[in-house]
Amino acid sequence: MNEDTNVVKENKKVGVYTIIGIIAIAVVCVGITYAYWILTRQQQGVNTVNTACLSIKLINEQDEINLQSAYPISDDDGLKLKPFKFTIENKCTKKAEYSLNLEMLDETTLSSNYVRMAINEVGAVSQPTTLSSYSSYDEMKISGTKEGRYIFSGILEANESKNYELRLWLSSVVGPSDDANNKYYASKIVIDSKIEYPTITKCQNTADSDECKLLNNENNKGTNSLIYDGTSDDNLRYTGTNPDNYVRFNNEIWRIIGFMKVKTDTGNTESRIKIIRQDGVGSQKDFGVYNWDSSVISGPSLSIDAFYNDWTTATLKEMLNGIYYESTTGECFKTTLSATSCDFTGTGSEPKGLDATAKGMIDKDVIWNLGGWKDANLTAAEMYQNERGTTTGDHNNYPQLWTKDNDATYHKGVALMYPSDYGFAVGGKVRNECLTKTLYSWWNSSSSTNECGSNDWLKPSSKNQLTLTPQSSTSSHVLIVTYNGNVNTTSGASGNMNSVWPVVYLNKNVKIVSDNTHNGSLEQPYDLTLN
């Protein structure tokens, strides 16, 4: 996103409540010491309370969360503890999106593996969870902290408030031999909030920004649906049922997912154009149905759990970055156990592979995130966080990133879309409502939920679409976008109904040609040039 782009955004604010305590075998307690608001852009020093129309209130601030005497306790006993209560209240006239995180202070010495946590709205059933099971993040919102855990996110309607209860205790699995004796634990609850999802009002400096050129192109104004997604990266995405995001790449019709903030092997965060080869566009051949992985095809135990959801070793990854990338023939997998010959030369049964011009436009230094989640029951924003987390499948030595360092042989930059790409592509009048719902629930019978998929151009029409994201509770399953319109899970080896849409990032020297004959429609797709 160009820094000169004029975008109206509400100021982000972070509510910080400090929970400081000592967790030890001898004495276990957490005490509330103080609470204050700070602005995310000003994280040094204590700021005065100036919350505009969004506020967070402490109830019984003086109460401590007593963590029961001298030994670890069970979950049943932990849920009986007196909770720390707080209220989030939105007095604004617009919706407020918020996320709740927990950040451990630098002086913390107790591992989050030993801390059990239960947080819920007042009156709701709480499910205890080990703190370390929540997705972690590295960019702390509060100074003086070293470990961040993303807990959940939600939406507050205008003039709505929500009451929460938090309980913490020492896990019952802790024994005398564990490294939990005489340890210190201190953390801060961080509530990050902003008003509504940001939208574009106008764009300047069109000569310097592909985003701005598309926004200001008089030929396609009114048909584009470019919206910033409101994540921490604030990616600019195409949304709606059928936006004008068609682009000619590899002498085929691909579509632009958006202008994404990515990290490269150099460690920089930069904006890149992300495109996808969507099946059934125009008259081009569907890409096809393939297994996500068929790494294990022989041996004494042939079961569904033998197949891995580790992208760095996946057979689909090898195919896309091998024979497809090189436009040649070779082995591929379309069924659970059997290898077959695939021909990507352009004369065989598969689509043609990448030509030299297309390969020269792909950014091969982009780091792909491989974080997963145990199921698909997350909103698009929550899924985006988990894709960038460290929770993955239980395959040994599973990495959380796809880089040249952990996969030098096949890293040529061809992968799949994320579930969050699908979630954030929803548009129209239902967009804001759909972004509050879990992606799994988009298949429900209620008309408003069904409209989520029907207002999303990335919804497949006849076959499920494989995504890059693993199901973290197994070593074999991955997340898919179903033709019913929701996100679900499947075995990576079940190729009979799961098709593939290849995805690439374009390098920074690639520019979009947008003029009277290239307006992004299917009839007049954008063209690409390589400076």
Description:
The protein is mainly β. 10% of the residues lie in helices and 32% in strands. A 7-stranded antiparallel β-sheet has the order 5-3-2-13-7-11-10. β24 and β25 form a beta hairpin.
Estimate percent helicity: under 10%
> How far do the termini sit from each other?
19 Å
Strand content: 25-35%
Overall pLDDT confidence: 76
**Strand line-up of the largest beta sheet:** 5-3-2-13-7-11-10
Structural class: mainly beta
Topology, number of strands: 30
Largest sheet: 7 strands, antiparallel
Separate helix tally: 9
Secondary-structure blueprint:
Blueprint: E1 7-8, E2 13-23, E3 28-39, E4 54-59, E5 65-66, H1 75-78, E6 84-90, E7 96-105, E8 115-121, E9 129-130, E10 136-137, E11 145-156, E12 161-170, E13 185-195, E14 199-200, H2 210-216, E15 226-228, E16 236-238, E17 246-249, E18 252-263, E19 269-276, H3 315-320, H4 323-326, E20 329-333, E21 339-343, H5 356-361, E22 368-369, H6 380-387, E23 401-402, H7 419-424, H8 431-434, H9 447-454, E24 464-470, E25 477-481, E26 487-491, E27 498-499, E28 503-505, E29 510-513, E30 527-530
Parallel strand pairs: 24-27
Antiparallel strand pairs: 1-14, 2-3, 2-13, 3-5, 4-6, 6-12, 7-11, 7-13, 8-9, 8-12, 10-11, 15-16, 16-18, 17-18, 18-19, 19-28, 20-21, 22-23, 24-25, 25-26, 29-30
